[in-house]
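User: I'm new to structure prediction. If I give you an amino acid sequence, what do you actually give back? Let's try with this one:
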Amino acid sequence: MNKTILLGRLTKKPEIRYSQANNIKVANFTLAVNRQYVKPGEERQTDFINIVAYSKLADFTEKYLDKGLQICVCGRIQTRVWTDDSNTKHYITEIIAEEINFADSPKKADENILNSSTPVNSQTPEITDGDIISGDDDLPF
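Assistant: Good question. You get back a string of structure tokens that encode the predicted 3D arrangement of the chain. For your 141 residues, that looks like this:
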């Protein structure tokens, strides 16, 4: 099974482009995810994870996600390999988003987002109050 769940903040507004092959909308963004364990006397470490969203989920990210917003991304890990013009192999590991949920408190999130009926994930459910966590201290993990 290839499933990952990440909770973090966007480092900047998602970048939008269209695929060359079939003109599908693609959103790329980076999620800053704090590590749970902190060594005594050291600062908390953060991982910066590349996320990719396609089609309707890319539309959603373009419209509602912005720098600093805390979200939960569910998806799968994918590693791509390609060879450039100088015959050098390149590898990239990224998360292909299948679902995105808001994790910021209502005070921090924009009212348009919270009251929207726009789908939040690829299965197109409506946003409910249960999708919104009331604050950083109330996280279940």
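You can read the tokens as a compact description of the fold. Here is one thing that stands out. The helical segments are 55-64, 111-114.
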